[in-house]
Amino acid sequence: MSSNNLFLKFKQHRQYFFISLLFVAIYFIGSALITPKITSVTENLVEDLIQGNLKSKENVVLFEFNQLNSYLIDAEKVIEYSAQTSAQELKDKLLFTSGLALENQNISNTFIRFLNADTDSFYSANTDALYAKEVNAYLNQKDVLKTKSTRDTIITKQNRVLYRKSCAVKLENGTSVTFGYDVDLLNFWDYFSEKYKGDGGYTVITNKNGICLLHPDTKYIGKKLQSYFETISIDKVLQSTIKINGYYVPRNDNILKTKAVSEFLDLEVLRYYDTIKINDTPLIVVVSFPLEIHLKETTQSIQRYFSWISFLAFATFMLILIVYRLQLKKEFVENLRVLEEKEQLIYANEKYQKENAVLQLNQLKKKMNPHFLFNSLNSLHVLIDLNPELSQQFVLKLADVYRYLLEERDGNLISVKKEITFLQHYVFLQEIRFNNSLNVSIIHNSDDKVLLNKIPFLSLETLVENAIKHNNITKQNPLFIEIRILNDKIEVLNNYMPRKQKVENSHRIGLTYLENTYLHYQIENFKTEILDGKFICTLPFIDLK
Question: Which of 153, 187, 221 is where one domain is finished?
Answer without folding.
Answer: 187
